[in-house]
C-alpha cells in the first residue's frame, strides 16, 4: 500500500534545525513528504491554513533559551485556531552546533548563523576564532548557504546542513551538548487533522490559552482544580493583552489527553473560571530519535 506524500511547511531554509526535525519526522521508513520552507513562523502557519501544506513545523521553545517569542505570540493571539489549526505534536530535537566551511579555519573572517545558535556558540567562537565577525541571519540553513557562496565564510549550523550544501565540518559540539550542557529545541507540528499523525509515541499534553478576571485569586481559582484532579500542570506562561497592557492571557499546559475523563473535567473547570478559553491542542510530546 502506497502512503500518500504529505506537504510539510517548516520555518527557515533547507538545512535549518526545523528542516532537520521535519525530515526526521516525516521522511524515511516508508514515508515521503514535500518539504516547503517558510521565511517566518507566521508564513509557515499560513501555508498550512491556506492548504498549501498539510502540516507546519515551527520552533516553540528551547531548553536553554526559553520560549520562541514569535511562536508564543502566534499561539496567544485570539485568531489562532480560527481555521481549525491545532498543535498536533511537540517534537524534542537535540541541537548539536557545528562549524561548517570550505576553507581552513585560519582563513575564516565571517561566521554566519541564527542569533540563538550564534549566542550558544559564542564562547567557542571567541576562543577559537577571535578575529571573525559574527553575522546573524534568518536560520542556520541560511547560514550554510552563505558559507557556500561567500569567500572566507563559515556557518554555525547542524552537521546535516554540511551534507546538504557540500560543506566540511571543521568542529562540532560548539554549544556543549555532548559535554554535559544539553540543548534541545522543541518544535510544534501544526495541522487540521491531528489523528493522521498519532503513532502511539510519547506522553500526552493538553494546552489551553485563557483570559481571566483581573482580580486577586483568579489565577489560583483557575488552576487549582487541575491539581485537585491529580493532573500535573507542566507549564504556565503569561503574555500581555495588547489593548489592556496591565492584563495577561495565560498559556496552561497539563499532562494527559482530552480523551481522558479527568482532563476533560479539568478543562471544564478552568473554563468556568475564565473569561475566554481556547484549546491549543492535545498532543503527544516526545524526543525524535
Give structural notes.
This protein has 289 residues and is of the alpha/beta class. The protein folds into 3 domains: 6-93 and 183-196, D-Maltodextrin-Binding Protein, domain 2 (3-Layer(aba) Sandwich); 98-179, 3-Layer(aba) Sandwich (D-Maltodextrin-Binding Protein, domain 2), CATH 3.40.190; 203-283, 2-Layer Sandwich (Alpha-Beta Plaits), CATH 3.30.70.260. The protein is built from 8 helices and 15 strands. The protein has helices at 17-26, 41-49, 69-76, 115-128, 140-149, 159-165, 218-228, 261-272; strands spanning 6-11, 33-38, 55-62, 66-67, 86-94, 98-101, 110-113, 133-136, 153-157, 168-172, 184-191, 203-212, 233-241, 244-255, 274-287. The strands form 2 sheets. Strands 1, 2, 3, 4, 5, 11, 12, 13, 14 and 15 form a 10-stranded mixed β-sheet that branches. Strands 8-7-9-6-10 form a 5-stranded mixed β-sheet, sandwiched between helices. A hairpin with a 2-residue loop joins strand 13 (233-241) and strand 14 (244-255). 40% of the residues are buried.
Mean pLDDT across the residues is 91
Radius of gyration: 21 Å
Total beta strands = 15
- The percentage helix is 25-40%
**Helix run count:** 8
List the keywords.
D-Maltodextrin-Binding Protein, domain 2, 5-stranded mixed beta sheet, 37% strand, Alpha-Beta Plaits, alpha/beta, 28% helix, 10-stranded mixed beta sheet
What is the secondary structure topology, with strand pairs?
Layout: E1 6-11, H1 17-26, E2 33-38, H2 41-49, E3 55-62, E4 66-67, H3 69-76, E5 86-94, E6 98-101, E7 110-113, H4 115-128, E8 133-136, H5 140-149, E9 153-157, H6 159-165, E10 168-172, E11 184-191, E12 203-212, H7 218-228, E13 233-241, E14 244-255, H8 261-272, E15 274-287
Helix pairs in contact: 7-8
